[in-house]
Design a protein that fits this description.
A five-stranded antiparallel β-sheet has the order 2-1-5-4-3. It is 22% helix and 38% strand. It has one domain. It is globular, with a radius of gyration of 14 Å. It has 98 residues and is an alpha+beta fold. 16% of the residues are buried.
């Protein structure tokens, strides 16, 4: 079985949409950027919100600069890695280690 990224779009705890992407076509950086783009669309961000989300808060950027941050979590018990981005709706990309 080929490994894939399973991408899920969530609204609260409800999965709204799900699709798969081939792992061999995405580096870690690619999947992070893909999640940012998907979260931008899902959240319906304005141009100003998109631009400000790339500003560095430590250098005087706005408080909403976290809108497109990508979080990473390795879940050892389930043998998978999960990247997530966005705030309701939010996007996850999961890959199994098996």
């Amino acid at each position: 079985m080929a490994r894939v990224w399973r991408c899920d779009i969530w609204h609260g705890l409800e999965r709204v949409e799900s699709f798969v992407l081939p792992t061999h076509r995405f580096t870690e950086r690619n999947i992070r950027e893909c999640l940012r783009a998907l979260a931008t669309k899902a959240q319906g961000l304005t141009y100003e919100e998109i631009a400000s989300s790339y500003m560095n808060r430590r250098k005087g950027g706005p408080e909403n600069s976290h809108l497109l941050e990508v979080d990473y979590e390795a879940i050892v018990e389930k043998r998978c890695s999960v990247y997530s981005c966005g705030h309701n709706p939010w996007i996850t990309a999961t890959i199994s280690w098996d």
